[in-house]
Amino acid sequence: MLSSTLSRFGNTARRQAMRAPSLIARNLATMSSSSTKDPSRSSIGSASSYLSNVSNFKIIESTLREGEQFANAFFTTEKKIEIAKALDEFGVEYLELTSPAASTQSYNDCKAIVGLGLKAKILTHVRCHMDDAKLAVQTGVDGLDVVIGTSSYLREFSHGKDMQYIIDTATEVINYVKSEGLEVRFSSEDSFRSDIVDLLNLYRAVDKLGVNRVGIADTVGCASPDQVAELVRTLRAIVSCDIECHFHNDTGCAIANAYAALQNGATHVDTSVLGIGERNGIPSLGGFIARMYAADKEYVKSKYNLHKLRDIENIVADAVGVSVPFNNYITGYCAFTHKAGIHAKAILNNPSTYEILRPEDFGMTRYVAIGHRLTGWNAVKNRVEQLGLPLTDADCKQITNKIKNLADIRPLSLDDVDKLLRKYGQAKEDNSHHAILENIDTPDQITEW
Ligand SMILES: CC(=O)SCCNC(=O)CCNC(=O)[C@H](O)C(C)(C)COP(=O)(O)OP(=O)(O)OC[C@H]1O[C@@H](n2cnc3c(N)ncnc32)[C@H](O)[C@@H]1OP(=O)(O)O
Ligand SMILES: O=C(O)CCC(=O)C(=O)O
Ligand SMILES: [Zn+2]
């Protein structure tokens, strides 16, 4: 299908794009001969491919642009500055800000954030229009992320312009931004519902103008990782500039799509804290970091101050009036809680058995829950050891059975489990420990001790 599409585009493009799969084939050969000595790494797909940038990417953090499009978002200037500083400390390479054309305050906020002198480059996101571009340049930002819709939906129902108009205006805007010495990215909104020939023609034209990046945007969240892989691989063969990607999460693929894009030659990924954005948002910074850590832990640890993640999420959650989700990547309250007995035993022997992320690397701690009916004697024994009680394995097994019976009524708090263990330990001194277990029928009895 790609081949027939590209034949409409031209011979050079077809030859370039068709070269990409052979590069992948070559890498498959490399992969199969590479060793997978590190047991913490996945045994498939861990070798780097020729096109892959999973160990060489940049984050364009868009909480202060896409995130401001989240239904609940209202950021004061002070809050924007706090978020910008926190993200800068975390180490993101770029901050993307709302267009200064949006409102007077948006314009002033751009200038205020530029004035902070952060390490991260400051971008603002503008329509493909000279008025917006001129206003943006006045704010002193490092670069402009220029966008215009290319799908027939947006050409007909949003801006109403045809492809020739888009190319002409893009040329004017890009030449202007470059003449001001700023970085410029050109992106096609709704790329995955755009005509592939139109799209590639447009990207090739703006690449020739010398843009720093072209952008692919899955504006409605319709793309799957294989579609992303195909488009990015094709684009990689057509343009020489960097490739940024922006994925919405309407159908749950945003992070996987970002990963597929990097594997196939994209260089920059858009994120927002907690994934906030238009509708249900884009890849969350934390989720994207989790994915990339699993792919190349040392690279991610060397670039980003991972211990800052939780603070940043709390700042943003608080600012937009939401809670950090219980199952949030890395910082969700149960992200490092192990419950089932089988898991608990193995985790206590070696955390890598059931953890791909090391909680310590993110300033988080592991927790093994024991006061429930799925517990096992190894987990209980571990707690006994933590409390320094001189109990045997047989004791631990008996207590575990009691905990299970009680937890069939309701789960026990750790406090109650500890009370039970201590009381049993004391009773062992005068050999009355069996009676302790026999005399308890409900968790409430322990709570009342
Ligand atoms: C997919 C995305 O998230 S893209 C980024 C979205 N970001 C924003 O919209 C930023 C916040 N937006 C705003 O503050 C306002 O929409 C503004 C200031 C940009 C424009 O406001 P208004 O002039 O009142 O226009 P309105 O919002 O009703 O419509 C959008 C206008 O931009 C035009 N337009 C839409 N997309 C583009 C584009 N990418 N490039 C150029 N023009 C565009 C539309 O045709 C329409 O023009 P019209 O006034 O001739 O009808
Ligand atoms: O500028 C871009 O690449 C993305 C714009 C956007 O937010 C989107 O298309 O969803
Ligand atoms: Zn978006």
UniProtKB/TrEMBL annotation:
Kindly list the biological process annotations in GO that this record carries: lysine biosynthetic process via aminoadipic acid
The catalysed reaction is: acetyl-CoA + 2-oxoglutarate + H2O = (2R)-homocitrate + CoA + H(+)
**SUPFAM superfamilies referenced in this protein's UniProt entry, alphabetically:** Aldolase
Annotated pathway: Amino-acid biosynthesis; L-lysine biosynthesis via AAA pathway; L-alpha-aminoadipate from 2-oxoglutarate: step 1/5
Q: Does the keyword Manganese apply?
A: yes
Q: Name one Pfam family in it.
A: HCS_D2
Q: Where is the Pyruvate carboxyltransferase domain?
A: 57-310
Task: Output the superkingdom of the source species.
Answer: Eukaryota
One GO location term (cellular component): mitochondrion
Q: EC number(s) for this protein? A: 2.3.3.14
GO molecular function annotation: homocitrate synthase activity; metal ion binding
Name of this protein = homocitrate synthase
